Amino acid sequence: MKLGPDHTPFEALGGEDKVKALVEDFYDAMSEHEPALARLHPCDEQGRVDRGSRDRFALFLIGWLGGPQHYIEQHGHPRLRMRHGRVPVDIAMRDAWMRAMVRALDKQKVEGELRRFLEDKLADVANFLRNQPG
Predict the structure, then answer these.
(1) What CATH number does residue 21 fall under?
(2) Which of 30, 53, 120, 134 is most buried, taking the most CB atoms under 10 A from its CB?
(3) What is the mean pLDDT of the chain?
(4) Alpha helices by DSSP H, 34-88
């Protein structure tokens, strides 16, 4: 698999439906295994992260991976640090986020070069959003 302008991670994953499935698995893993992280999001009465959060992250991830830029069209520039500024993100929260994402990648059977690429890039973003020591 060669990623580049003609073959984006979005395409390598399989397009919008696959990215949306990854997001659903991510938030399901978060809700089930990382309740402290899930509670930083609006949740339903069962403690599951709500539809709005899931839909916004799916739009963001689709664009971030090289797909259609619907997030920017609807919400403007992501401004990740600004949008997450009210949320205390320390090493524990960063690691919880990555554990939920790894579970989602496992469930979607993302492997090989694409898996390594995604884990590296997602870890970079998770670390970038840290705004608390420790």
Answers:
(1) 1.10.490.10
(2) 30
(3) 91
(4) 35-38, 51-64, 70-75, 80-83
